[in-house]
Each structure stands twice: as structure tokens, then as C-alpha cells.
Amino acid sequence: MDDMVGIAKALSPMSAKTAERLDRALAPTSAFDGPNDLAEQQTLLATRDQLLALA
Predict the structure, then answer these.
(1) What are the residue ranges in the chain where pLDDT is below 70?
(2) What is the 3-state secondary structure (H, E, C) of the chain?
């Protein structure tokens, strides 16, 4: 981790343009609602497990 911190400190600050690009790239992740968003995934995994049990 110390190496990563050293690299980050050695780099120049992020430009405004780069910050905007990063914000746009990460925008979909800000809508993630934790466990509530995983409910459908849990249903799909349960269905998968039931189908595997039948195989």
C-alpha cells in the first residue's frame, strides 16, 4: 500500500477534464443501493441452485 500511496503522491493532480470523465464513468455506480439491488440476483441464484439440484 505504501508503494501505491507514493505513486499517487508523485503524480500531478487530476485535470478538470479527467475528473469530469471519471464522474461520468462512475455515475452508474452511484445508483447502487446495496443489498436492495442484490435481491433479484439472489432470486436468480436460488433458481440456478434449484435447477442444478435437478440435474
Answers:
(1) none
(2) CHHHHHHHHHCCCCCHHHHHHHHHHHHHHHCCCHHHHHHHHHHHHHHHHHHHHHC
